[in-house]
Amino acid sequence: MIQIGSLAQAAPVVSPADTCGAVYEIFRSERDLLAVPVVADGVPRGLVNRQHLLVEMAGQFGRPLFERKPITVLMDAQPLIVEADISLDTLNQVLAADRPAALTEGFIITRRGRYEGLGTALSVLQANMAEARKTADQLETARFQAEAAVRSKSLFLANMSHELRTPLNAIIGFTDVVCQEQLGPIRPAKYGEYIEDVNASGKHLLNVINAILDMSKIEAGRLDLDEDYHDPHELIVMVVRIMRGMAERASVLVRETAGAGLPLVRMDMQLYRQMLMNLLSNAIKFSDPGSEVRVEAEVLADGRFATRVVDEGCGIAPGDLARVMEPFGQGSVSRVRRQAGTGLGLPLVKALAEAHGGALDLDSLPGLGTTVTVTLPAERVASADAMPNLIA
């Protein structure tokens, strides 16, 4: 577990007797310095924040007024001080609950009460990212080691969910605060670009982990269906409306051609929506600007209920069809390889369909688009005689 001592950064240290003018010159010479600790005989006495000092010194009479006075008049006499041997999780809790301002003002790290170094928002973010990468690497290693024991692998992934999500949620939460500049402007401004990248990477990794955990729950037999009869047309219209923003950004037209009048179908509403959203996301992602994605639904001749997502995208080579249906499998087409993803979308939809007793069929050719069909068993489709009672 990461301890706070690893976050301590070397920084110029001043004594309580040093003048404001001397500290001002330190900030002038080191433009990326966030704060300067005030230390006497190895014991921290306070913390001088760059922005506060520069604001006070910038006025017409500010510098003559302060430059010869001891720095104690402008320092924060009660900064956040943490011991080097506390854990990163504990620091995250303190920053989030008690001292969020320390993210922009900095904090002091001590070892047995003696000054050790300066802590900053950037060092906290870097440590959280390192912790997340370490845990993700452990998860990946465990997946390969447990290839022959799918159930053991799935249980392991489920048990790791807290350890993975805790640092990621801290990364996403703190970077959201910093990106929105809730506690003050980002200085230097270039850090804003880096923090936005960290935020986007954290959210992407959290989505990957959620997909992996969904797969593990299914494979471990721990998925419970919350079943009832629902109107599939209403659910399709809802999902198409949700996904329209993503489609517009990709200049892809999404429309549903199922039409009203479909029978009610017994299913888990949330999981059916999740299947549709995964399929539509894939279809939009691999479609060219100006093309169309359609959602169709019908009752087949044998009574099964079928939902199709049809696109005009890059398609999948015949040799890749089996691979893309395996967890973490992806096609070899260059357009497919360039898209961000884990290869869990189609396998997850297949697993959710099978949890309903159904199936997933994939029909695709390079350059001619892809059709994915999810079928649910006939016994899940309400009969014409039962429909009035179910609606009532």
From TrEMBL:
EC main group: transferase
A Gene Ontology molecular function term of the record: histidine phosphotransfer kinase activity
Pfam family, one: HATPase_c
CC per GO annotation: plasma membrane
Keywords: ATP-binding, Coiled coil, Kinase, Membrane, Nucleotide-binding, Phosphoprotein, Transferase, Two-component regulatory system
Source organism superkingdom: Bacteria
Coiled coil stretches, renumbered: 122-149
Reaction(s) catalysed (UniProt annotation): ATP + protein L-histidine = ADP + protein N-phospho-L-histidine
Record's protein name: histidine kinase
Organism: Rhodothalassium salexigens DSM 2132
